[in-house]
Amino acid sequence: MAQNAYQYSTSAEALPIRQTNPKTATRVRYQAARWTRKERMMVAFVSAVIMVLMIGVVFSSVQISATHTSINTLQSKIDDTKESNDVLRSDIQDQTSKQNLDKVAKKYNMTLSDDSVRNINR
């Protein structure tokens, strides 16, 4: 320990001496420390993860857009089919109505005997 004694100083000696002329004081420029290999690898890894996430967001957005387009197409087909079904139901109702049956029977000289008709929907 005695060999290190010369390195220690009192607090009064440790204080720097103030210069009266501030223009002559030199200013130490900041110099950035070099990155270690581990830090560079971490930055590269985080950058790669961020790029993958950004690509994933864009891919998901494109897929959602394509899905919405196909849903809209299918919905329009469903609406057209429902409309067609409604028209067909209306035609069936018209064709099976009592007035139409009487008209067709009259056209082909047929008669309907009410005695032979039996209602089963009671």
TrEMBL record:
Name this polypeptide is given: Cell division protein FtsL
Membrane topology of this protein: Single-pass type II membrane protein
Signal peptide: none
Naturally occurring in which organism (per UniProt): Leuconostoc carnosum (strain JB16)
InterPro entries: Cell_div_FtsL, FtsL/DivIC
Record has Nucleotide-binding as a keyword: no
Family the entry assigns: Belongs to the FtsL family.
Transmembrane portions of the chain: 41-62
Record's keyword terms, sorted: Cell cycle, Cell division, Cell membrane, Membrane, Transmembrane, Transmembrane helix
Transport in keyword set: no
Principal location listed in the UniProt entry: membrane
Compartments where located: Cell membrane
Function summary: Essential cell division protein.
Any single GO CC term annotated in Swiss-Prot or TrEMBL for this entry: plasma membrane
One GO-annotated biological process of the protein: FtsZ-dependent cytokinesis
